[in-house]
Amino acid sequence: MTKKQKLELTWVGKENRPRLEPRILIEDPAKSYHAAARVSDADIFDNVLIHGDNLLALKALEADYAGKVKCVFIDPPYNTGSAFTHYDDGLEHSIWLGLMRDRLEIIRRLLSDDGSLWITIDDNEAHYLKVLCDEIFGRPNFVASAVWQKRYSRENREAIGDAHDYVLIYAKESLRFKRVRNRVPMTEAQEKIYKNPNNHPRGRWRGIPMTAQGYRPNQMYEIVAPGGAVHVPPEGRCWSTIEPEFKKLLDEGRIYFGKDGNSQPNIIRFLDEVEGLVPWTWWPHEEVGHTDEAMKEMHGIYGKADPFPTPKPERLINRILHIATNPGDLVLDSFAGSGTTGAVAHKMGRRWIMVELGDHCTSHIVPRLQQVIDGSDQGGISKSAEWKGGGGFRYYELAPSLLETDKWGREVISREYDAAMLAQALCKLEGFTYAPSDSVYWQQGHSSETDFLYVTTQTLGPEELAALSEDVGEGRSLLILCAAFRGNADLWPNLTLRKIPNHIRSKCEWGHDDYSLNVANLPMAEPEPAPPPPAQGGLFDGEDG
Questions:
Q1: What is the DSSP secondary structure assignment for residue 510, as one 8-state letter?
Q2: How far apart are CA 420 and CA 194, in angstroms?
Q3: In this structure, what are the phi and psi dihedrals at residue 305, rounded to the nearest 5 degrees?
Q4: Closest CA to 221 of 522, 44, 229, 230
Q5: How far is the C-alpha of 333 from the C-alpha of 353, rounded, in Å?
Q6: Residue 47, H or E segment
Q7: Cα distance between residue 258 and residue 265, in whole Å
Q8: What string of pLDDT tens digits covers the 545 residues of the chain?
Q9: Nearest to 513 by CA among 63, 18, 12, 85
Q10: SS3 annotation, 20-44
Q11: How far apart are the C-alpha atoms of 211 and 327, rounded to whole Å?
Q12: Cβ contacts of residue 13 below 8 Å, gap of 6+?
């Protein structure tokens, strides 16, 4: 393998890629929800909940949110072969990889340059998923594979009990992520190592050894302890500071020589100056919760009659969002499930977008978020976050496909689209920003300060085109998408004329509403042919030869 070649994961059907239609989103005001009054100036109301296929939803978000999402958390179906009430989790391996690939590629484009992706997964696909993510994000942008202890009691059903899941972590740009990621707070057990043996007035502290690996001439001086002992750096090491800095620390009372005053010097680090700990890959259940805790949270929200399967505890999502984001940052979860990510992000003061295809988007997620916004949800992280309610979200449905088939088998503009929806959809298809002007009827979208888009279902004649060209004027351009036009288009160089729907028919797959992780309708595989009958006689037929 040459240096230019890279290792790639291959699977059956990898070359098949969907040609996604960039749908528009339609708000359902009856399901959107906002607090009756502001609780604080930090309340966030522009959160987004989308009901629909998550691949189409990601494509719908791309134009407006590319490069703006700070953290993506997803808890995709694990491909275990199990069947759950609210989604199917048992896909053929190659299909699972293809469906994940399509989603991850858009997710990467949505991430900000210092953003990160966090995926919970188990052993069934974790290692294949890592290779897939290496291919999409680049191996240098792999951050870590954290181990979440999801169970605290042993199970005896398997050859080896399943006690953990992985949290696979990738950055858009690993160096930028490292600069912005947050430390995690210390637990009470970790704080106990800070003591105060010399009754320092500043309080609890711990000693940090004052040596460093290597040899530096200006860090190889003698230190005389208060008790008279003389210390030099151990072999192969030097002091961690130069002598003037050491003397400054000594004058400040920041050097400790042990109870007898003769021990090797340690630098005093006070508890009140520790900002937290660098995150590491072992996440015990005591720190981030476990599956039983998550199920109890579900019971508190929905009751025991309708528990959501395999939920994640709020403390787990809290850990992820604490490391990856700050208040006001945007969080995305395109496998929303029971809505834990949005609930936790909301309580932590983060903006959020969630996507869910199933009916539980309405039956589970909406009432859960309503409780969060009302402040009546005091489970999960509510008490530690001092959550009192506030904010809101908007509920959206994916618009139907722009083109539909009429009774003669022709692709035509869907009858469900009004003029505004049509203009918005065509702006997405053409890469324009939908921004209709209040005063100029033909300015419905723009790609720059001088390039505009106009959509009409009318047939435009030479007089109307000439008037439009004069209005547009020199130094500006206008893309016109219309049913038809008459005249020579070359007469108006600042106008570009295209007929719809002919102009858009080949742009993407129309009428495809479900790219979900669901293979219930796959055809059965062809039966394998029977093996040929064994040959009569010979070495492979039991003879000695």
A1: -
A2: 64
A3: -70, -30
A4: 230
A5: 6
A6: strand 47-51
A7: 8
A8: 444 456 678 888 888 899 999 999 999 999 999 999 999 998 999 999 999 999 999 999 999 999 999 999 999 987 655 544 454 555 577 888 888 999 999 999 999 999 999 999 999 889 999 999 999 999 999 999 999 999 988 877 778 888 999 999 999 999 999 999 999 988 888 888 999 998 889 999 999 999 999 999 999 999 999 999 999 999 999 999 999 999 999 999 999 999 999 999 999 999 988 888 999 999 999 999 999 999 999 888 888 766 677 789 999 999 999 999 999 999 999 999 999 999 999 999 999 999 999 888 999 999 999 999 999 999 999 999 999 999 999 999 999 999 999 999 899 999 999 999 999 999 999 999 999 999 999 999 999 999 999 999 999 999 999 999 999 999 999 999 999 999 999 999 999 999 999 999 999 999 999 887 554 434 444 555 555 554 443 323 333 33
A9: 18
A10: CCCCCEEECCCCCEECCCCCCCCCC
A11: 38
A12: 94, 95, 98
174: nearest Cα among 146, 139, 141: 141
The residues with which 434 forms a beta bridge, in sequence order, are 445
Q: Which CATH class is domain 25-185+278-398?
A: alpha beta
Q: Please list the residues that pair with 48 across neighbouring strands.
A: 353, 394
Residue 428: name the closest of 113, 56, 68, 18 by CA.
56
| Residues forming beta bridges with residue 533, ordered by sequence position | none
413: tokens are 């503009």
Longest CA–CA separation in the chain, Å? 103
d(CA 105, CA 138): 12
Q: Which amino acid is at 511?
A: G
Fill in the DSSP letter of residue 495.
E
Burial of 540 (C-beta count, 10 Å sphere; 0-12/13-18/19+) = exposed
Q: Which two tokens stand for residue 398?
A: 């994916």
Write the DSSP string, 160-217. S---EEEEEEEESSHHHHHHHPPPBPPPHHHHTT-B-TT--TT--EEEEE-EEES--G
Residues 6+ apart with CB under 8 A from 398: 23, 25, 26, 50, 51, 52, 53, 56, 57, 60, 513
* Rounded-to-integer distance, Cα 356 and Cα 414, Å: 24
Helix (H, G, I), strand (E, B) or coil at 239: strand
Domain range summary for the chain, segments of one domain joined by +: 25-185+278-398, 188-273, 403-504
First to last CA, the chain: 44
> Amino acid identity of 181?
R
